[in-house]
Amino acid sequence: MSCANPLEMVSSLLDGGMTPREQKKALTHLNSCRSCNARFQSAYQLRRSMLEMDDPLIPEALAGRLRVLASHERERRLRRASLSALMRHWGSWVWLCFDNMMRPRALPIAGGVISALLLVGVWLPALASNQSSDDVPLATWGYIGPSPLDVRATGGAGNAVVELTIDERGRVVDYTVTSGAMTPELGGMILFSRFNPATLFGRPTSGKLVYRLSQVSVIG
Amino acid sequence: MAASILDLSPERTAEVAEAADLRLVQSLREGSEWAYEELLSRFQQPVYALALRLLGDSSEAADVVQEVFLKVFRNVGSFRGQSSLKTWVYRITVNEAHNARRWFFRHRRHEAEPDLAAEETRDWRETIPDGSRSPFDVAFDREQHVMIEAALDRINPIFREAVVLRDIADMSYEEIAEVLGITLGTVKSRILRGRGSLREELEGSLRSSRLLRLAPTTAE
To answer: Chain A within 8 Å of B70 (Cβ-Cβ)?
Structure first.
C-alpha cells in the first residue's frame, strides 16, 4: 500500500471499513511511513476527543415541556382507544370548563342571591302593611241600596223578587220579575222609586239590583 | 498501537436492542406511562445534542426537539421495526433540523438573541470538581472540545451531519445511511470529506495555539 490516498486509508482504518487483508497491509504501511502514521494518530486523537465530548445538557424548561407534551399525547392516544374513553374525556372536559367558568363567579353569585333574598325579606312586610282597610277600592262596584223615603206602596202584594236596572242617577229604568206576582200598582211604585246609584272608581254608574218585596202594606 | 485502537466503540447486541425497542414501541402504542417516560429518558438528551450540533442555536434546537417528540409520539403506530428505534428517532431529528435550517435562513438569520439557556441550565454536578483528572487536563480537553465544536459549525452542514453521526453519536455507516436516507457509498464519501474539512478548519485554528497536539510528550 502506498500514500496515494492517505485520508481515505486513515478513515477506513478508523471506521473498520477494511477487510482483514486490507487492514493488515494498511498497518504495515503505517509502521513504515511516518507521515501516514502521524496522520492516523492525529485522526485517531481527534475522533477520540469527539467521542469524549460531553453532550450539551438539555435545558430544564425544555425537559419540562417535553414531559407535558408526553402527558398530553398519552392522554390523546388513550382517549382514542375506545368510544367510552372518548365520551369520558369529553364529559370531564365539559365538567372542567363548567367548573372553571363557575368557580370565579360562585362567590359573587351566591352573595347577590343572598342579598336579594334579605332585601325582599325586609321590604315585603312593609309593602304588605302599606294597604289600609279604609282605602277606596278602585275597580269595584259601589253599594246599591233603596232610598226608604222614595218607596211608596200603592197596593198590597205577596212575596216577589224583582231585578231592577238602575241608572247613574238612582232611577229605575227597567225591572224584571224573577219570582212571585206583581201588581200594576207595585210596578208603578218601583218605577217611581229612587235608589242610591252604584259607584265605579268613586263615580256613580248604572247597575242592577235584585230586590225582594214582601208584605207590602198599602198606605192611603 | 494502531491495531489496538480500531475497536473504539463497543456496540450493544443487536437482538437485545431490537427486542427492547419493540417492547417500548408496543408499550407506547398501548399508552403506557412507563413507555413515555422511558422514551424521553433515552432520547431527549441525545436528540437535543444532535439538534444543537446540527443547528448551532439552542432555541432552534429546543423547537426542533419538541417537533421531533411530537412526531415520534404521533407516528409511533406506523413504526414497523425495519430500523432501530434510535435510527428512526435520529432520522426524524435530522429531517426536522433540515426544515428548521431552511426556515432559519429564510426568516431569522439577521436576528440576534442572547443565549442564556446554557447558563441557566448548568447542572449542579458540573460544579463539583472531578478528582480523577488534573485541572490542566480538564481545561485542555474543554478547550479542545470548544475548538472542535466551533470548527464543526464552520463546515458544510451536509458533511457536518455525517461527521456528527459517526464521530460524536458513534453510529455505524449503515445506521447513518438509514438516518440520512442515502447510500453507504455516499455516507463514506461525506464522512471522508467532512473529516477533511474539519481537519482543515482545526489546522487553521491551531496554527497559532498548537493546542491540539496529538501526541503529548513529557519534558525531559
So the answer is: yes
A1 close contact with B: CB closer than 8 A:
no
Task: Tell whether A53 is within 8 A of chain B (Cβ).
Answer: yes
* Residue A139 CB coordination number (10 Å): 6
Q: Is the CB of residue B205 less than 8 Å from the CB of residue B147?
A: yes
- pLDDT 10s digits, B93-113: 999 999 988 877 666 655 555
Residue B9 sits at the chain A interface (C-beta within 8 Å): yes
What distance in Å separates the CA atoms of residue A121 and residue A113, rounded to the nearest whole number? 12
- Supply B199's cell numbers: 481537519
What is the grid cell recorded at B17? 436492542
What residues of A are in contact with residue B73 (Cβ under 8 Å)?
69-70, 73-74, 77
- Distance separating alpha carbons of residues A31 and A42, to the nearest angstrom: 15
C-alpha cell at B8: 473504539
**Beta-carbon contacts of residue A12 (< 8 Å; ≥ 6 apart):** A18, A22, A26
Q: How far apart are CA B92 and CA A44, in angstroms?
A: 30
In whole angstroms, give the CA distance from residue B102 to residue B113.
19
- Reported as a single tens digit per residue, the pLDDT across B120-129 is 555 545 555 5
Question: What ipTM does this complex have?
Answer: 0.73
pTM for this one?
A: 0.59
CB-CB: which of B52, B65, B73 is closest to A70? Answer: B73
Please give the backbone phi and psi of residue A178, each rounded to the nearest 5 degrees, phi first.
-90, -25
A122 CB within 8 Å of a chain B CB: no
* Closest C-alpha to B215, from B8, B1, B7: B1
Task: Spell out which residues of chain A touch residue B5, defining contact as CB-CB under 8 Å.
Answer: 44
Give the residue ranges of DSSP H helices in chain B: 14-30, 33-55, 58-75, 85-107, 117-120, 135-154, 157-163, 173-180, 184-209
Average pLDDT, chain A: 79
